[in-house]
Amino acid sequence: MRWIFLTAILFATLALAHSYEKGELQIRHPWARATPPGTTVGVGYFEIRNTGKEPDRLLSATSPAARQVEMHVSEHAGEVARMRQLRAFEVPARERLTLEPNGAHLMLVDLVQPLKKGERFPMTLRFERAGEIDIEFEVQELGSRHSRH
Questions:
Q1: CB of 44 within 8 A of CB of 106?
Q2: String of b and e for 117-135 (b: at least 16 CB within 10 Å)?
Q3: Number of CB atoms found within 10 A of residue 107's CB
Q4: Both ends of the chain: CA-CA distance in Å?
Q5: Per-residue pLDDT of the chain (149 residues; tens, 9 = 90+)
Q6: Burial of 81 (0-12, 13-18, 19+ CB in 10 A)
Q7: 19-22 vs 25-33, strand pairing mode
Q8: Which of 30, 69, 95, 147 pairs as cysteine with 61 (C-beta 3.0–4.6 A)?
Q9: Residue 6 and residue 30: Cα distance in Å, rounded?
Q10: CA 72, CA 134: separation in Å to the nearest integer?
């Protein structure tokens, strides 16, 4: 009986955790916050792990959920926070880059429809070395601060 229970927990955990791999890159736990009705901008987060000996760069991203996807970083100087658009995200060799609230993130511009908690949407990431990686975001509640995985 205990074996069945442990197996059920393992499968439930695997179903919740989602990651995508291509070559030496792994994209872990893509998630986005739900957006209120009428909002035209959303934000996406995830972790990129590079296990290779060479750095890589995230050059662009596209999704049917938004007209455009931009790479941004939030910078803080004292009490003032500013958002700056980047041309690429650098992913150092044998390190990880975390896209998270108040840091690096993907901005989904001109959403097709509001992002609703519990829904999922696809995105294609284009890397300099690894090429394209198709991932799927999980939409979490509006005030979520981090991935729940």
A1: yes
A2: eeeebebebebeebeebeb
A3: 17
A4: 26
A5: 544 444 444 444 344 458 999 999 999 999 999 999 999 999 999 999 999 999 999 999 999 999 999 999 998 888 888 899 999 999 999 999 999 999 999 999 999 999 999 999 999 999 999 999 999 999 999 866 654 44
A6: exposed
A7: antiparallel
A8: 69
A9: 26
A10: 20
CB contact at 8 A, 31 and 97: no
Map out the domains of the chain with their CATH numbers: 2-140 (2.60.40.1890)
And the tokens for 127? 């890397």
Question: What radius of gyration, in Å, describes the C-alpha atoms of the chain?
Answer: 16
Length of the chain: 149
The whole-angstrom separation of Cα 6 and Cα 58 is 38
20-to-30, 55, 132, 138 alpha-carbon distances in Å = 9, 18, 11, 13
- Six-digit token pair at 85? 């658009």
